[in-house]
Amino acid sequence: MLLAAYAALALLLAAALGLELAARRSHPPTAAAPPGANPAFARFQRGFLRGYLPALAADWLQGPYLYKLYQHYGFVETQIAVLYVCGLASSVLFGPVAASLVDALGRRASCVLFSLTYSACCLTKLSRDYLVLAAGRVLGGLSTALLFCAFEAWYVHEHVEHHDFPAEWVPATFSQAAFWNHVLAVGAGVVANAAAEWLGLGPVAPFVASIPLLVLAGAVALKDWDENYGKKRALAKSCADGLRRLLADQRVLLLGTVQALFESVIYIFVFLWTPVLDPHGLPLGIVFSSFMAASMVGASLYRLAVSPRYRLQPVHVLSLSVLVGFFSLFMLTFSTNPSQESPAESFVAFLLLELSCGLYFPAMGFLRRKAIPEKDRPGVTNWCRVPLNLLACLGLLLLHGADHGPGTRSIFSACCGLMLLALLAVVGLFSVVRHDAELWLPPPQGQPDAPEL
Q1: CA nearest to 353, candidates 369, 335, 371
Q2: For a FRET experiment, which of 57, 314, 326, 389 has its CA 20 to 30 Å from that of 295?
Q3: What's the burial of 300, exposed, middle or buried (CB within 10 Å: 0-12/13-18/19+)?
Q4: pLDDT digits (tens, 9 = 90+) for 25-55
Q5: What pTM was computed for the model?
């Protein structure tokens, strides 16, 4: 199994590279000069990525060995599940108010606050005290909310309001950030594995290694970025508008249902993959990198599928991602059977689940942007997070350390049921958007007819 993990990583990286090159060739070059050809924009973009990418790298470094660290400290599965639930509960608490906090405090100040709170979160990992570790999970939830809110808000404001660059150039920066985010995720697993296992520093090493990156991100923001603020938002009004949109638009309701079901399963997977694979001697950091490489393959497949050459619609890709996710979980209900465990089959199933994530997130992002007006998006997102986090928390709390094998298999069976419900919701979405051109990709020039669903 040790060699299988390294071989899987190498094969997936080769596949991701090949698919990425194919995807780029399938998109015809545009006549207009690319945004990066503008020297002022290129400088501004590099200045943003110098602060943003270290923050993302620090976040990824903490992924492979979190469960292993708690296990190393002597906690059983039930106790570890509660720690994960603390993180999810923190996300529920801070997620809805993060945007308002960032706008009031200042976007640059919020980026610096992120680096401080996440550094404190990493430092708590040095303690073996359960309450300190729980407090660290709460800090982690706050930090994650800031990471995915403050940096993007700062950039968009500076891009449009301060530098007066065209709004159409904003996706160029986030597309580049998404590419490097995948690269950093793969590299983070290898670095974490090197620190924890090759150098023998133990599972706490990746968390300590994250701190210099967080300090760098905060220092770049403090030194090189200007402060900007957002308009005051009434949280109650935002949630009320989001609920009205959710209930009034069947497309939004179905998309929210798919999101809650699919992503709650992914949260449970994040908890379960370590106890399933670690007893069989797989290097956790390399396994994590393999997962991220599989996600890269899925993202490249998405770009290739929706290119002018193949012209699949995002709703097609969304349905494929849910179907692959269902199949992977169905495999796991057999491979985690306590009487005949198959770690190799479980590893393949996890890779398929990650591949489905690579397909799912860009497809869901496109459909949400098209179906939900920007002013209602925060409120809708907050409402979708409620069932999402509740389902994930329920799944984690159903696990019992004394009955690990059967408990794990039962949870995967339940996740398989959730993914089947998500598949039914996608079928419902198909019937709703069949003649809805708003959710289609625009056809290539000279081909005005929209594709059939």
Answers
A1: 335
A2: 389
A3: buried
A4: 887 665 455 676 789 999 999 999 999 999 9
A5: 0.92
